[in-house]
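tokens incoming
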């Protein structure tokens, strides 16, 4: 028996290696495979060409999310490519015998929202999807990462992948967060410190008292954006918060199986003395509400600060190009900057806690004139819960538009696009040029900061507005 202390990552990885040879990638078993309409069509075509069935259909779950409209989902999709991809997903799932939560299904939603919500995401699992933000599921203490279309085909056909073992990093955040500071601010702060390439080659474990104090939905936000620092994925050790969240969910273990699963899950946290290839630590008290000013998530700063005079992450040329695109200047403050759109949604911040936070802040307030506010729940279940709690009425009275579930304006692959030259305060995960529509200018923030911008019409430090 090996008595060497092991990390959470090591324990899960070692349990899923089918075969390992020196100088070759490991043959790695996948417990849960999520698919959606964008990265799966070519994979199914590959299976057909080889006349191969899906190896383990019960371990694959499909939903439509990226290309779906967020209004009038009961009508045929207008945009031709979106309509084709969504219809093709339906055909492929029928042909290969896969579970599909398509448009109109009560379990439909963004893939990284429905997995945890339904109890499909569990500690100790290996999980993949043809989507970079699969790292979200790591919040449960699982190894979860995005894969390419050719790898989607590999998993469909074999339930395995060839994978080189990544290095490990632990990022510790200790202490108490300031009022108005959330998990989105934590992850934007980390990325601003280590850059969009600082995690390249690593799987990151988030630890420390500030992380342990977070709800599951807040932990998902942090793991979701691990990919934005270049990491392969991110994960957080399962604890009582994790177990309480999972218990009773539709596909979670029940009865005797629950007790067995729980006993195993409790063995997963990293052993005392386990070694990581890199360790970083930050103080929670140093983190203020964050905002990006450039065209990648690493170009971020505290809301009260000025845009840096020189490039912090990347080259001076990158900085100049980004500020030119954003029509901003070095040393400029963003506080008081007028904005045009507010988008609250995406797999980063579209869960019920996010919507509750926003509703609580905007209750008895109105959106600023001339600002368009889109609230897009992450799933049909989140939408139903929001309505059951009366959040829809609060949004309506504030002049916000509550739309139907989907990826929406996070990536502009559907009809929800921000017009060229307009500024959007967004709770999504990426701010690349044209990400939310050709020429759109994106500030990444937390749901609270987005809510403050919605009611004031400009960028605000939410700490000054909280009672």
């Amino acid at each position: 028996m090996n008595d060497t202390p092991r990390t959470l990552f090591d324990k899960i990885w070692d349990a899923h290696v089918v075969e390992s040879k020196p100088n070759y990638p490991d043959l790695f078993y996948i417990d849960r495979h999520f698919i959606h309409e964008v990265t799966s069509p070519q994979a199914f075509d590959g299976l057909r060409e080889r006349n191969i069935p899906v190896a383990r259909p019960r371990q694959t779950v499909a939903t439509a999310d990226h290309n779906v409209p967020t209004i009038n989902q009961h009508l045929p999709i207008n945009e031709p490519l979106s309509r084709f991809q969504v219809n093709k997903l339906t055909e492929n799932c029928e042909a290969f015998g896969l579970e599909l939560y398509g448009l109109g299904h009560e379990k439909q939603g963004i893939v990284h929202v429905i997995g945890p919500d339904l109890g499909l995401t569990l500690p100790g699992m290996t999980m993949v999807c043809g989507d970079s933000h699969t790292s979200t599921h790591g919040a449960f203490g699982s190894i979860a990462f995005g894969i390419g279309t050719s790898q989607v085909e590999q998993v469909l056909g074999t339930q395995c992948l060839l994978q080189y073992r990544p290095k490990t990093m632990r990022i510790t955040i200790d202490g108490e967060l300031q009022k108005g500071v959330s998990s989105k601010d934590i992850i934007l702060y980390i990325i601003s410190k280590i850059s969009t390439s600082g995690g390249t080659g690593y799987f990151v474990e988030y630890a420390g008292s500030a992380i342990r104090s977070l709800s599951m939905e807040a932990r998902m936000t942090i793991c979701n954006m691990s990919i934005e620092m270049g990491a392969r994925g991110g994960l957080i050790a399962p604890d009582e918060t994790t177990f309480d969240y999972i218990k009773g969910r539709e596909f979670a273990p029940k009865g005797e199986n629950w007790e067995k699963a729980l006993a195993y899950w409790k063995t997963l946290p990293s052993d005392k003395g386990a070694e990581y290839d890199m360790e970083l630590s930050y103080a929670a008290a140093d983190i203020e509400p964050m905002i990006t000013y450039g065209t990648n998530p690493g170009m971020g700063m505290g809301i009260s600060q000025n845009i840096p005079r020189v490039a912090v992450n990347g080259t001076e040329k990158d900085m100049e190009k980004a500020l030119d695109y954003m029509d901003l200047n070095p040393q400029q403050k963003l506080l008081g900057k007028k904005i045009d759109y507010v988008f609250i949604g995406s797999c980063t911040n579209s869960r019920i806690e996010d919507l509750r936070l926003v509703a609580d802040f905007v209750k008895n307030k109105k959106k600023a004139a001339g600002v368009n506010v889109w609230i897009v729940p992450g799933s049909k279940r989140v939408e139903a819960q929001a309505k059951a709690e009366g959040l829809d009425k609060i949004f309506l009275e504030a002049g916000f538009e509550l739309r139907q579930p989907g990826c929406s304006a996070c990536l502009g692959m559907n009809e929800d696009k921000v017009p060229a030259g307009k500024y959007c305060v967004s709770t999504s995960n990426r701010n690349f040029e044209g990400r939310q529509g050709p020429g759109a200018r994106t500030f990444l923030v937390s749901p609270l900061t987005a809510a403050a911008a919605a009611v004031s019409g400009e960028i605000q430090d939410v700490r000054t507005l909280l009672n």
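note: The mean pLDDT is 96.
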